[in-house]
Design brief:
Blueprint: E1 4-11, E2 25-32, E3 35-43, H1 46-57, E4 61-66
Antiparallel strand pairs: 1-3, 2-3, 2-4
Length: 91
């Protein structure tokens, strides 16, 4: 879905205490076969996040809360994605 990016799937709830995450990151709780699972998702709008997870899990969706992230989302570099090569200087 547009506007929602999954950063970590099926992680621990303690991963949300990482202060290096952007402030637009949310810890999402949902249930699979009665067991609570957690994702860390990045989004610009909470409504998009709710729509995405509710469409996936319906009644097994529990809640989402903001992580402890402090970084500006525009300046944050995802450590899981390779950095793009720098372009050479034009002459």
């Amino acid at each position: 879905m547009k506007g929602v990016r999954i950063y970590k799937e099926k992680c621990n709830a303690e991963d949300a205490t990482d202060k290096s995450l952007p402030y637009s990151a949310y810890l999402v709780e949902y249930k699979v076969d009665g067991v609570s699972c957690f994702d860390i998702a990045l989004t610009g709008k909470e409504a998009d996040l709710f729509d995405y997870y509710y469409d996936l899990y319906k009644k097994d969706f529990v809640k989402f809360t903001q992580t402890e992230g402090r970084s500006n989302p525009k300046l944050w570099n995802d450590p899981n994605q390779p950095t793009p090569p720098k372009k050479g200087r034009k002459k």
